[in-house]
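for the writeup, i need someone to sanity check this before i put it in the appendix. the sequnce is what the collaborator sent (i think, or maybe the updated version? ugh). structure was predicted straight from it, no edits. if anything looks off just tell me and ill rerun, i have time this weekend
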Amino acid sequence: MRELELYFGPQHLGMVGNFSITLKVEGDRIIEAAANPGYLHRGFEKLMELRTWIQNFPLVCRINVVEPDPMEMIYAMAVEKLANLEVPERAHYIRSIYLELSRVSSHLFGLWAYSNMLGFDTVAQWAMYHRDLVLDLFEELTGGRVYHIYIWPGGVRRDFPDGFKDRIVNTLHTIGGCVPDYDAAFFNNRLFYERSKGIGQISQEDAKRLGGVGQVLRATGVKHDIRKAESYAAYNSIDWDIHTREDGDAYSRIWVIRNEMIESVHMIFKLLDAMPEGDAYKKVQNPFKWKIPKGEAYVKIESSRGELGLYMVSNGGDKPYRVNFRTPSYTHGLTILEKMLRNASIADVGNIMISLYVVAPEIDR
């Protein structure tokens, strides 16, 4: 049979945003794959060097449209480290709750994309509806549904409004009450098993060697999470588990995502119970006149996709001098994806792509 060049995406359900892949195929079998993350969002790091410290908060959110909140967090942490700013204890708890709500929202969005791509339309509609309930909470707290600009150096922009804790609890109980429905319709469904078991498989050694993080690594049995390994915010103040699987395939990765979402809900309940009284932010100088002392900082956190890092340099001026992000999608969407697609079926391209949790702007930044 002759080899053909096939362009997969960006209009395909199995693609994310403007991502596309050039496939060399023989029949329905992929011989070689070249990922193209596209040019929708690009140049963030250089743009940040041309904007003041406070102006960069709306910008960093765009690096991950699905989950902008960890980007706020990591940028605020880098500024705090450079400026030697302390964060009040209550603000640490609020940040942790806020980030776990963001994780639940991101995982629901991922479940929508994956189930929709496999043809589980009912499950996809459930997931998108439940994600909207979490976005309602973000809208009440910050005024925005997608981009929130809530975390900033010294704490958060405002404390929880009256009754907000109860609304968080009620929303999470609503979502949690539907877990048996999700399990019956999707996770324990034979069709999900047959479409994902053994697909996009990677060994633990290859996952480590190629820079896999998050669910890609934990689905191979590695019990690693930055929230435990190098704890930040209030994550070391409560007990919680790291969920793993052993097979390193799409089935294992989606199950890890499912279990992490449930664990996040339990973490939020514990954080709400343990949250102390006090200030939600530390008063700082006029942010429009910030000049951060000279120095360099590297900070990292655990986003819903895995380890997220930021290296930043200040020359003492009103703008960052150098900025470089370490994003999970960079290795997942380029190196690991291209490796997994070799010898795979054309029908499984979207399956593998979404199970790796790739977000295109994290790559071409």
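The first strand starts at residue 4 and ends at 8. The radius of gyration is 21 Å.
thx in advance!!
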